[in-house]
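Figure 2 data, in text form.
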Amino acid sequence: MVDRTAAVATQMIDDARVRVTRFDFAPGAETGWHTHGMDYVITAVTQCEMTLEEPGGNTRHVVVAAGDAYVRKAGVAHNVINGGDEPMSFVEVELK
């Protein structure tokens, strides 16, 4: 098990309809293993060079350009790591 710095999560909105959180990662920082309980949308603030650790030992590398967005369904389980050499940030909007 690798000991990494935690990404900084800053909650921006949490109301009856959405939860909005900004995540800021130093190089090598991680979210830690988690399972998404809600559908969600990610919008990259910076270019995000993500290393995704997934169940079963799978690892994927994904690059999301600044300003790009994607949507995922509830139930996704992973650990998100900044796999790049620069800080990265994204905003996550969870749909309640």
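Caption note: DSSP finds no helices and nine strands in the chain.
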